[in-house]
Each structure stands twice: as structure tokens, then as C-alpha cells.
Amino acid sequence: MCGIVGYLGNKNTTKILLEGLKELEYRGYDSAGLALLNGEDIEVYKALGKLENLREKTKNILNNSFELGIGHTRWATHGKPTELNAHPHSGQYSYIVHNGIIENYKEIKDSLLLQGHKFISQTDTEVIVHLFENINNKINDPKQAFKDTISKLKGAFSILLVTKADPNKIYFFKNGSPLIVAKGNEKQEFLFASSDAPLIGLAQNAIYLEDGVGGVVSKEELEIFSDNYIWSILPTSKQFAQKNGHRFFMEKEIYEQGDVVSDCMLGRVKDNEINFDEIDSSILDGINEIKICACGTSYHASMASAYLFERLSKIRCNVEIASEFRYKEPLLTNDTLFIVVSQSGETADTLEALKMAKNAGLKTLVVCNVNNSSMTRVANNTILTRAGIEKGVASTKAFSTQTVVLWMLSLYFAKIKSSLSKELLQKEIQALSQVPKVLVVNNKLHEKTRRLSKRYLHGHGFFFIGRDVFYPLALEGALKLKEISYLHAEGYPSGEMKHGPIALADPELFTIALMPKNSLYEKVKSNVEELSARDSTICSISPLHFELSDDFIKTNDRDHYMLEFFEMLVVLQLLSMEISIRLGNDVDMPRNLAKSVTVE
Ligand code: F6R
User: Which of 266, 394, 418, 426 is deepest in the core (most CB within 10 A)?
Assistant: First the structure.
């Protein structure tokens, strides 16, 4: 995913920017670039591929006297990974780096084209710098032109802009994607980065900018165009910085789901349409059925998607655990699109299932987080989930990005097959676009799970129950809890209780009931009442108050069941983590588990 760095000061600007970009390398990128300024002298360097290529291009200027510079690593979204599309982008006299997506870039670009602006890249970013110059050319006031530019942009955008019209300054703004400004350890020194790792050791005080906050900095002064900011102390250890100030990688990964899901949707949801550049619409030619194979959390995301493929794309879909599929002598016919879902792309059972399907001549597709993994090399088609490295063994952001990719795919197929009316498709895309916001962790909700966690440290077991897509979500909630708390937990479709499991109900059986407003509320309610009547302790998660709950976690009133799904997902992840912390377990590295399961 994209990364931003910026520097203003008396040290070696090129070196600091390159080292900063190195710290962001783990996020993945396909090109990188720098703009270096000294007064009105500007030099721009861009390179495809690894940072080494950029380092090579800049090696002759390593002892430079540039006073400031901005740098970027780009993960292609709008436009292919090429040098032309790499950042920084420029107009006549200004340069910009940008993380995020400008939703209204097309309207702005069309209007600027009519006014004679020429664009050389396919990116949405280039329109920002042209818009800035267009306004500045009229008013000759760079600060006001920057503010006016920002006010015209829609979408997610964290940017650094430098301009010969106001040399020796960096303009900055944060909206959606993260951006930090820090006071350097030396006098007259300021740094920027899209996460704190590049700043460690170079600065102690920083502002983690809030959405909608920007400003301008020169050696003499940092001006913020808002009162909405506070200075924080940066962590001193890189390991801590990698956790972005969180206690565990799992916590960090839960908190970054909003951002990674935005990244995951970049370029795929635009202009109210779903597009996947990486697959061809002919993928559905001759296909009557979808079969998905996966393990663990990836299996749960796949199960949830089966409801969506049938409901939205109107394609028959079934999901199997990869280790079962391999040995059942499955009937494979080439009217089946075979999909595997995997965070690592290395899970042995899933990989073997994929090879079996490919050898049988089926069209194959992998939904995966790791590019160049074994599965991406075997499958005919790959869709990357763009979650960034997941370090916590218990999977969190992998699940949310997988589910979002599969929901997008079901809508993409619905478009190809015209299986949904235009209105319904638009409604789905509208809901989908809200997922990043829904995934932002609400502090009150986190605090509530922390307080409730003390009541759930014992007992003879947990039932996680739900219906429809909330059934796989219940399975995922139960898996999270057992993985990191070592408490016994099972997920069930709530309608199944009376067919056996309810025999276990007593006060020491904790039921975590997923009770969304927009999906079968009354049905789930009756199932929970049955458990409550048998004295099970009930913790309900719902936007609607339920009088039989012993504990109640109130979610927001949303108008689409998938938005309720993602909000409840965060609640379940936080609850398991808080229980695990209270039990004193190793949250990130639970006993007996490995991150990548490359054995059968
Ligand atoms: C659960 C978890 C595992 C994995 C499973 C599949 O938190 O991490 O259940 O989901 O081992 O791994 P991938 O997705 O890498 O194929």
C-alpha cells in the first residue's frame, strides 16, 4: 500500500527520505519517487519496482543540499504501475504525493482539460496538483489556493504538496489515510510520514493528524489550519512503532481494518461501479457454479460470501473446507469456477485443492493477501486483498478484506450477469462504500468489551449464534475466542439450538448472540429466548435492546445487514482480545498455532 514521507531541515534530505520509505516498505508497493527542493531548484526521481532502483538513480546526489523533499511508495490503483504513474506528480511548478483516492477526480479532470491543463498520468493524484495551480494562477496566493483545492476534493486523501510559488514550505492535509507531522530532534526540522516507523529516532513530538486537518510548514514555523490537534510523544522503539502504539499486533490490525479495507476497495469501487482490472469479464463464460475452498478464518469469509454469490450474482455456490475436499474424490466439472481464499497463499490443504481443480481443467481464482505466494503462482486469476502484512496469528484484517473482496466480486458478477436491478446494485455499492467507516473502532465500544471481558473468563463454554451471514460470523467469533483465550467456544446457526446444542444450556454456558436488525431479527430473537428460558447467560450484540440479555453490546442502527456484519465483527474481535489479555495469554502468538500452515 502507498506510503508518504516528507522532510524539511538541514540534514541530508535524500537519505532521510529513502530511509523513511524503507521503513514503509513492508506495506507493499510497485514504484517509488522523490521530489527534492532547494529554493526554486527542484529535482524529481522515480523508479519502478524496489526502492533499490530509486536509490540507484539518486546515488550521485547523496551529498546534496536540498532543504526539503517529499517521497512516496505507490501501490497501483488508478493506472498501471509505471514510472509515469509513480508519485510525486507535478503541474507546471508544484509537486504532490498522495495516499487515498479522489472520488470526484474525473469531474475535476474534465473541467481542467477544458481549461487547457495537460495530464500525463492515469492517476487521480495528478488532478490535485493541477487544480492547485489552476486556482493559484488566478489568485496568486498559494496558501488560499491550497485550502480551496482541498475544499473541492471528495474521497480519501492525505497529501504533501511543494510549490515553487511558495518555496521552502511543505503544505499538508489529512483525510482518510493516516498522516503524521513531527518536530525533528534538530532545530528547524520537521518530518512527515504515513505511519510512525520512519520518524523513530529522528523526532520525539508528533501530531497524528485528524481527518480534515492540514497546514503548512517552513523551517521557522508550523501552522495548522485548525485547533483540532494535540502533540503526542512518539514511541522510541521500532518494534513498538510497528504496532503503532498498540499493545499487540492483533489490536493494531483490528484498528487498521478501516484503512486496509479502503485500500482494498481502491480503484475497484469507482464511479458507483465495481471493476477488477486483474480479471476479465469472460471469467464467467460457461460457468454455472462456484466452488470455494479454504481453511479456518478464510473458510468463514468464504462461507459468508456463498450467501452473497447466490443472493446477488444468482450463481450456485458451495464452500468446502480444503482438507475435506481433497480426499472426498470430488466431482469436478468445468462449468465450475473454482475459488480458493487464503491470507498467506501457502496453506497446504488449500494449495493442493487448487492444484486438483487446475489439473481437472477448471478455471481457478485465488483471493489472497500475499503476492507471489504459491497460490497466486498456480491459479489462473488472482485478486489481492491488500491487507498488508498480518502479524497476529489470529487473523483479523485478513477476514475483513477477504469478505469485502468476495462481496465486491459477487456484485461484479451480478453486473456481468445482470442478475440485479440497477437500483439494487447501486444500493449494494452504496453500502459497500461505507464499510471502511463502519470498521473504524469506536472507543466506547472497545471500552465496553474491555469491561465486559471480566465476566467471561470461566464457564464451561461459549455458544456464538447467528443466522444467514451472521452464522459464519458466529463461527469466526468462536474461532477467535478459542484461539487466543483457550476457552471452549462453538459457532452455531441459531436455528440449530433445539436440535441438540441447547442441552448444554445452563448459567455457565455463555451465549454470544448476533442479533442484526436487518436480517431475520425476529427469528434469532426466538432462538435466543429459548436459550434464555434454559438459563444460559446471554450477551447480545444488536442495535435493538433485548430485554432478556444479561449483557448487551449496542451496535449502531445501520440500514444494510452487511454493515451490521462488519460492526459486529469488530466487537467479536475486541471481545476475544480483551478476554485473552485478562487471562494473561500471549495474544499475538497463541500456543500451538502457527501463522502459515504449510503442512497437511
Ligand atoms: C485463524 C487463522 C487460521 C487461518 C487458516 C488459513 O485466526 O489464522 O484459521 O485462517 O490457517 O490460513 P490462510 O488464510 O493463510 O490460508
Answer: 394
Domains of the chain, start order: 3-233 (3.60.20.10), 242-440 (3.40.50.10490), 442-591 (3.40.50.10490)
pLDDT at 521: 95
Q: How far is CA 268 from the centre of its chain?
A: 13
Distance CA 600, CA 597 (A): 8
Dist. CA 426–CA 462, nearest whole Å: 38
> In 3-state terms, what secondary structure has residue 318?
strand
Whole-structure pTM value: 0.75
What's the pLDDT at 567? Answer: 98
pLDDT at 357: 97
Q: Are 562 and 431 in contact (CB under 8 A)?
A: yes
What confidence tens digit (pLDDT) does each residue in 23-62 have? 887 666 788 999 999 887 889 999 998 899 999 999 877 5
Q: Does the beta carbon of 31 sit less than 6 angstroms from any atom of ligand 1?
A: no
Burial (CB count <10 Å: 0-12, 13-18, 19+), residue 366: buried
Distance from residue 599's CA to the centre of ligand 1 (Å):
13
Is 298 a pocket residue for ligand 1 (Cβ < 6 Å)? yes
Q: How far apart are CA 271 and CA 93, in angstroms?
A: 30
- Name every residue whose Cβ is closer than 8 Å to that of residue 498 and which is 6 or more positions away in sequence: 527, 530
Q: Which residues pair with 222 in a beta bridge?
A: 217
* Distance (Å) from CA 394 to ligand 1 centroid: 8
The residue nearest atom 16 of ligand 1, judged by CA position, is: 342
User: Which residues in the chain land under pLDDT 50?
Assistant: none
User: What is the number of other CB atoms lying within 10 angstroms of the CB of residue 347?
Assistant: 28
Which phi-psi region, left, alpha or beta, contains residue 277 (left: φ > 0; alpha: ψ -120 to 50)?
alpha
> How high is the pLDDT of residue 49?
87
99 touches ligand 1 (CB under 6 Å) = no
296 CA → ligand 1 middle, Å: 5
Residue nearest to atom 4 of ligand 1 (CA): 296
- Residues 363, 368, 374, CA angle at the centre, nearest 5°? 75
Q: Which of 339, 343, 370, 376 to mutate to test the pocket of ligand 1 (most atoms within 8 A of CB)?
A: 343
How far apart are the CA of 486 and the centre of ligand 1, in A?
17
| pLDDT for position 239 | 64
Catalytic residues: 2, 595
Nearest to 149 by CA among 208, 157, 89: 157
